[in-house]
Amino acid sequence: MFKGNFIQNLPKIYGTYTGGFFIFIILMAIAEQAGVSAKNIGVMFVAFTVLIYAMIGYLSRTIQVDAYYVAGRQVPTVFNGMATAADWMSGASFVALAGGVYFGGYTYMAFLVGWTGGYVLVATLMAPYLRKFGCYTVPDFIGTRYGGNLVRACSVFVLFIASFTYVTAQINATGTIASRALGIPFEAGVWVGLISILICSMLGGMRAVTWTQVAQYIVLIVAYLIPVFWISNKVGGGVFPHLMLGDKVQYLAELEQQFGLVKNSAADMKAAGVPGGLKYISGSHSGVPEGGMAVWKYLSLAICMMVGTASLPHILMRYFTTPTVRAARKSVAWSLFFIFLLYSSAPMLATLSKLALMDPNLPTGIIGKSISDVQSIEWVQRWSEVKQVFIADFNGDGILQLNEWFMRGDVVVLATPEVAGLPFVISGLVFAGGMAAAMSTADGLVLAISNALSHDIYYKIIDPKADTAKRLLVARVLLVLIGAAGAYIASFRLTSILGSVAWAFDFAMSGLFFPLVLGVWWKRATRAGAIAGIMAGILSGLFYLLWVYPKFSVPIFGGVNTPFLGIDHLRFGMIGAPVCLVVMVVVSLMTKEPDAATQKMVDDTRIPTGKAILGKQH
Amino acid sequence: MSNKDAYWNKTRNHMIITLVLWAFFSLVIFMFGSELNTMSFLGYPLAYYMTAQGSLLAFVIMLFWTANKQEKIDEEHGYSEREED
Q1: Which of A127, A140, A192, A475 is the most exposed place for a label (fewest CB within 10 A)?
Q2: Reported pTM
Q3: Which of A285, A323, A607 lies nearest to residue B85, judging by beta carbons?
Q4: If DSSP codes are grouped into helix, strand and coil, which group holds residue A514?
Q5: DSSP character for A125?
Q6: Average pLDDT rounded to a whole number, residues A468-475
């Protein structure tokens, strides 16, 4: 069924697939009723979905260069939207986003605006022009527009730093979910995750990744939305939570008043032995913090995430796969629509989860109840055992206060179905969704890195005479090596030192945003300007990160430095990107303007019709 | 002015309009977060609503609008790809 008219058959194929997935969920629900253990249901969910992805990956194998790099440029608009959404929404988005909103409230939601608003920049400044250009990779555009191997190598360098920072976190997430769902040690989970990722991408490159990502999107969105709607109905949030939780948000503000938002001292928490990584609610759910600094912190985080989004190569390269420029533009809109479905649900899930725990009128409410009662609840016991939730009776009154209840952010997504009393089949579904989200992003990232190395470094710089078979062999070997390196680093569980996913955005915006934008929008931008801009941007960003992040600054600079203008380690792109812009403009103006051929190339890039700058096979 | 230049001028102006709207929904309204939160929409405090859902929705609508508008500009200047796909 994957032969011949495959593209025209796509709606039918994925329709059947979605139907099949729902039947599988129903079968699992029946199995649960028949007494199959919760653990086995989790195993079956993950194993079944991963097997399907592997099958799609195998069926999409290819020996063609343009199929391997850009899926043959025939991915229809809506499907590319779904694939991009899966590419975009990582394990962290799926598992941690709602938890972030749960604890961080309004301030944290700068991430939501940042991770969606960036697509407006992608659509207006980048995607259609890069598609017209006809490049295989992001450095392919920079290398051809500015001309020369040095500028190409510089952009590969930035791509490598940004994407590798990100991929380690994704493989880590894949490992965490695989280990929890399959009941195996984390280190083994990482390698199971890696093998699943490689099966999906190795044989078919971009083509295989595209079709598995569409399948993964369907699983992850079903797995996210079913619990949200179900829980909403269970805890009285209404049939359509997105439109109906207004009163509940205001009610939460009243409950916060009633229970009191108290900040625990570090000493108290240490004395009580609160495990690391667990948090408690100390900020308001919907209230806006006062003051100019709070506004600036919100805006600067949103800016970094938006500009970073528009510079991340694994996202930009998805728009190289559409049949036309027009399709690339529309495809960005569809991508954001599919992303919106999940992102607008995360704050609703956070609200429902808080409501379930805090509302004294609900049977699930635990705040304000006696601690011994709470400790006898089954799910509290289960998650306490694995140190995901914790109770510390600071004031010794035997009643659970809001500031005495600790939990890990992930628990919001992973445990709320259980808390609200949903059957375990839903928790199994959530595991499958988390796995799909982590795998799809890891796939896209590993492919972005290995494609840049194989196409831009190996083929364009080292061996331009290599034949197709050799190029694809190199691409696949690099894919396995990059994946293995990511998994190797992830298996050390360095996440506490490696820091945050946000860094990938800051790196990408520091080194790639302005070279890409100016490459299209400013004809005067020169090769020397681009090289200087890229290196100045990425190095100043990196240096600032080392300077400002305590875990680096203490060993390197011998002390903790106060962030300049509130620009902390999450926002270091606010330093790198402006440096990149200024250096690039100044150096461009100091050097001779680009030759007529380059100017003509930019002119052609700006117009949707006509031949692509780079040939179909190059 | 050649057709190419006229096309690019229109495209650039369209880009600027889109980015102004984008800046309004992503940055400007959140400069006034605490003021907005005294108002409400669908029962949600307004600033909370915008960051949780409203701005996100505005971006989605904006992208479909901007793609359609750009297609019209393409057509006007004879750069439409309609026959090609």
Answers
A1: A192
A2: 0.91
A3: A323
A4: helix
A5: I
A6: 85
Token pair listed for A157 = 């360098």
Do A338 and A150 meet the contact criterion of CB atoms below 8 Å apart? no
Residues of A in contact with B47 (CB under 8 A): 106, 288
Chain A contact probe: residue of B18, B24, B26 with most A CBs at under 10 A: B26
Q: Where are the domains of chain B?
A: 3-76
With a CB cutoff of 8 Å and minimum separation 6, the contacts of A397 are none
Nearest Cα residue to A44 out of A437, A435, A432, A439: A432
The CA distance from A207 to A320, in Å, is 12
Tokens found for residue A101: 């909103």
Strand partners, A399: A370
Q: For the stretch A491-525, what's the b/e string if a residue is b when 16 or more beta carbons lie within 10 angstroms of its beta carbon?
A: beeebeebbebbbbbbbbbbbbbbbbbbbbbebeb
B63–A336 C-beta distance less than 8 A: yes
- DSSP state string for A418-443: HHTT--HHHHHHHHHHHHHHHHHHHH
CA gap A382, A378 in Å, rounded? 6
CB distance A437 to A216 below 8 Å: yes
Q: How far is A344 from chain B (nearest CA, A)?
A: 5
Q: Which of B12, B51, B74 sits opposite A106 (nearest CB)?
A: B51
Q: Does B58 touch chain A (CB under 8 A)?
A: no
Which range has the worst mean pLDDT, A103-107, A133-137, A256-260, A455-459? A256-260
- Contact status, residue A480 vs residue A246, Cβ threshold 8 Å: no
**ipTM associated with this complex:** 0.93
Q: Is the minimum CB–CB distance between B5 and chain A shorter than 8 Å?
A: no
